[in-house]
Design a protein that fits this description.
Largest sheet of chain B: none
Radius of gyration of chain A: 24 Å
Largest interface: B-C, 52 and 55 residues
Chains: A mainly alpha (142), B mainly alpha (402), C alpha+beta (246)
Number of strands of chain B: 1
Helix content of chain B: 55-70%
Low-confidence stretches of chain B: 1-7, 394-402
Radius of gyration of chain B: 22 Å
Shape of chain B: globular
CATH superfamily of chain B: Formate dehydrogenase/DMSO reductase domain
Shape of chain A: elongated
Distance between the termini of chain A: 88 Å
Number of helices of chain A: 5
Structural class of chain B: mainly alpha
Structural class of chain A: mainly alpha
Mean pLDDT of chain A: 81
Oligomer: heterotrimer
CATH architecture of chain B: Up-down Bundle
Order of helices and strands of chain A: HHHHH
């Protein structure tokens, strides 16, 4: 009969001990330290007086799928000027200093994304700057 | 057929070879990264020639991967006993070449980070979408095929696996030829002949690669391939090369019959419009003479050219393959699209102009890196498992019967 | 009278059914919310409309490139032509070899009804919209350039370099393939493509944009009245762009 799990554990006490210590330490870290000790992203607030599509916790969790749904609506079905469009987001969230949401490290999108270490692919193609023009600009209508 | 056991390559030399192969592969990966960061502007490609040297390397490897499995098929499916011991090596080479070719193809993409998108979004009118399944399925079938050959209890299933591999291989290579055959826009393509042409080319190129690897392995281990087996394989390669030449001749001959294709044929065959004459040199010199006629001479010589002659012929066939693919892929793009038949055209977008494509170092490194990856995979496979064909070897030093 | 086991089973089934319904509701709810948001914007395109262009080459001067400049400005393209620069529209100077008759022709994506570029795209990034405009969904484009190989009109360009300072209405980036969009960002809001507008503004009036499906539209009436043809009509791709005077 070969050595079972508990037998293996008893054979390597050092490894078992180290693993347990690691687990306990991680657990302690996750269990939460006072807010002041954990760095939080400094997120620039949006344009004053505006209202986002949903509450921050919903937006934080769902913005990838909201953007993905809206982009398919816009590209494939030609639905533009939607409230959930990327341009609308940028319009409210662009930084007053840079005029952009992803140019400086402190701009709206970059601040949280660099904190979470999640690369943003959007602005390789999309302009991250707010469009400071009238509503009819670019439509070809006089 | 006695099993003489594990043939281990001398350790030190093996690791040196592995290191060299790894360095070549790493250089290819580095070049791909450079291309990804800076964009394809660092290559010689443009909006006229969008598929360049990396595609030449990749398509050679993928077509050869399909064809090298032929050796196994002749053994398993058609029951030729001399080929049966060669089947495992043929399977390994097929996997290695497929991996190398796909590596180059995927790294040459404009957005290689989006391979996941390619794997999850499919437009099934596109041959490329089918290829995602054909290539990955091919790898799986080869893996199962190798398993049936190595696992003694499953040996009875190797014929079924061999047939599955054969059928899948035909579908895959038909797909590769149809990548071009389905393109109505370009005069070089838009032909149903391209799918069978690629199938026959795969037979020739695959067998040539197999013979090169087999010769090298035998020489390394101090063995000699039995003369009657060698003669059969050499003759077979000659037949495949002749068949490829025939189909290429039919393709160009038919094109010459159509008035609307004559400008294109003059460009490829005579270099009209191409000041450097790159394409006729590569076609006539590189493919017809070096890649077809010389090998046929060596392989069909009355008294046989011997093992060295066969190795040389195989190497020439591979060189000819690269020449033909360059003419086919790049030449087809260099010749301008005919948007206004019967007119001379000029524009800022190179309409009506022949575009000269000069590959730069990132493309060379990427292509050669793919070969390196195939080499590394083959070397590791040969080292780890029993891939050397098990012939009846005479004792070293004894004369080989003629 | 149900046994204890059967009663338990029935109870479990009811619970599973409720749970499934609940899950469905939870999963659908965000979708319902999003659909509500989308409907506040411009309406979705339909197949009732087929956008097209009619180009009168007799009004195209050889040196004029107003349409090209307008396109470059509108879409943020590099105005300096090079082998690797993206050109969504270009003027092609043609001369018939036998007769010597020459013309100057603006060529862009022909927005075919049977686009070969859509057939060959592995991810479906190259697609034809319901209203006939052929586009590249750059979210799905992997940059394989198969559509560039497939297009008979050399309409597609591959972006060879990193792009910056994109126009907010025209996202474009390195590694993807692109082409004339018939200015969808304008058309969807009721406007006309930039090239057509610029040509009209300059007084040439060589380009006409409109709905080919509407018999009352100016373009439909004009193509009924004058001789026009499609480029490479022999390929039967049925482009939405027609040329007069060729």
């Amino acid at each position: 009969m070969h050595c079972g799990v508990s037998c293996q554990l008893m054979r390597h006490p050092l490894a078992v001990a180290l693993t347990l210590v690691l687990l306990i330490a991680t657990g302690a870290a996750i269990a939460g330290e006072p807010a002041g000790r954990t760095p939080r992203p400094a997120i620039e607030p949006a344009t004053a007086g505006t209202q986002c599509l949903a509450t921050p916790d919903v937006m934080r969790r769902d913005h990838p799928s909201m953007l993905k749904h809206q982009r398919d609506e816009t590209v494939h079905r030609g639905v533009r000027e939607a409230r959930a469009s990327l341009k609308a987001c940028i319009g409210c969230h662009a930084s007053a200093a840079t005029g952009s949401v992803a140019q400086a490290k402190t701009d709206f999108c970059s601040s949280c994304h660099s904190y979470a270490a999640v690369q943003i692919d959007c602005f390789e193609c999309h302009s991250s700057k707010a469009q400071r023009t009238t509503a009819l600009a670019g439509t070809g209508q006089p | 057929m006695t099993n003489t056991g594990f043939h281990a390559i001398e350790s030190r030399a093996f690791y040196v070879l592995l290191l060299l192969g790894g360095l070549v592969t790493a250089a290819g990966l580095g070049a791909a990264h450079y291309m990804e960061v800076h964009g394809h502007v660092v290559t010689g490609m443009s909006n006229q020639v969008v598929w360049g040297l990396p595609h030449v390397f990749a398509i050679f490897m993928i077509v050869a991967a399909s064809g090298v499995l032929n050796v196994a098929s002749i053994g398993s499916v058609f029951g030729q006993t001399a080929y049966k011991p060669r089947a495992p090596l043929s399977g390994l080479l097929s996997l290695a070449l497929l991996a190398g070719g796909l590596m180059v193809l995927m790294l040459d993409l404009g957005r290689p980070d989006r391979v996941i998108v390619a794997a999850t979004h499919y437009n099934f009118t596109s041959v490329f979408a089918w290829n995602v399944f054909l290539y990955s399925g091919m790898a799986a079938i080869i893996a199962i095929y190798l398993w049936t050959m190595f696992e003694r209890r499953l040996n009875g299933y190797s014929k079924a696996a061999g047939i599955a591999a054969l059928v899948w291989r035909f579908a895959l290579t038909t797909g590769t030829g149809s990548i071009f055959g389905f393109l109505v826009a370009r005069q070089a393509y838009q032909s149903a002949l391209l799918a069978p042409l690629f199938i026959v080319l795969s037979f020739a190129w695959g067998l040539a690669v197999f013979l090169i690897v087999q010769s090298v392995m035998y020489a390394w281990n101090g063995h000699t391939l039995p003369e009657d087996v060698r003669r059969r394989m050499a003759r077979l390669l000659g037949v495949f090369v002749a068949a490829s030449l025939y189909l290429v001749a039919v393709y160009h001959g038919t094109n010459l019959y159509f008035a609307r294709q004559s400008a294109f044929e003059a460009f490829i065959l005579l270099g009209r419009g191409d000041e450097l004459g790159v394409f006729p040199a590569l076609f006539w010199g590189g493919y017809v003479v070096v890649g077809a006629l010389l090998p046929m001479l060596l392989l069909f010589m009355p008294r046989g050219a011997g093992p060295n002659g066969m190795l040389a012929a195989s190497a020439l066939v591979v060189a000819g393959a690269f020449a033909l693919l360059f003419v086919f892929i790049v030449g087809g793009q260099s010749f301008p699209l005919e948007i206004f038949p019967g007119h001379e055209v000029t524009s800022s977008f190179a309409d009506g102009a022949v575009e000269l494509y000069r590959p730069r170092w990132p493309e060379w490194l990427l292509g050669i890196g793919g070969l390196g990856a195939a080499f590394v995979l083959t070397a590791i496979g040969i080292r780890a498992l029993d891939f050397l064909p098990q012939d009846d070897f005479a004792a070293p030093g004894a004369k080989v019967a003629e | 009278m149900k046994t204890g086991a059967e009663q338990g089973l029935a109870g479990r089934r009811k619970f599973l059914g409720l749970a499934a319904a609940g899950m469905g509701g939870v999963l659908l709810a965000p979708g319902i919310h999003l659909i509500e948001v989308a409907q506040a914007a411009t309406p979705a395109v339909t197949g009732k409309v087929r956008w097209g262009l009619l180009i009168d080459t007799t009004k195209c001067a050889s040196g004029c490139s107003d349409c090209v400049s307008a396109c470059n400005t509108e879409n943020g393209l590099d105005p300096r032509p090079s082998p690797t620069s993206a050109q969504w529209i270009r003027k092609v100077e043609i001369k018939e070899i036998k007769t010597g008759r020459s013309a100057s022709v603006p060529v862009m994506c022909q927005h075919c009804a049977e686009p070969p570029c859509v057939d060959v795209c592995p991810t479906g990034a190259s697609f034809k919209r319901a209203d006939g405009i052929v586009l590249v969904d750059r979210h799905s484009c992997i940059g394989c350039r198969y559509c560039v190989m497939a297009c008979p009109y050399k309409a597609r360009s591959f972006v060879h370099e990193p792009v910056s300072d994109q126009k907010p209405d025209v996202p474009r980036g390195k590694g993807c393939v692109e082409g004339c969009t018939l200015c969808v960002h304008r058309v969807d809001k009721g406007g006309t493509p930039a090239c057509v507008e610029a040509c009209a503004k300059a007084g040439h009036h060589a380009m006409l944009f409109g709905d080919l499906n509407d018999p009352a539209s100016e373009i439909s009436q004009r193509v009924k009245a004058v001789a026009s043809r499609q480029l490479r009509a022999d390929l039967r791709l049925d482009p939405g762009v027609r040329y007069q005077g060729l």
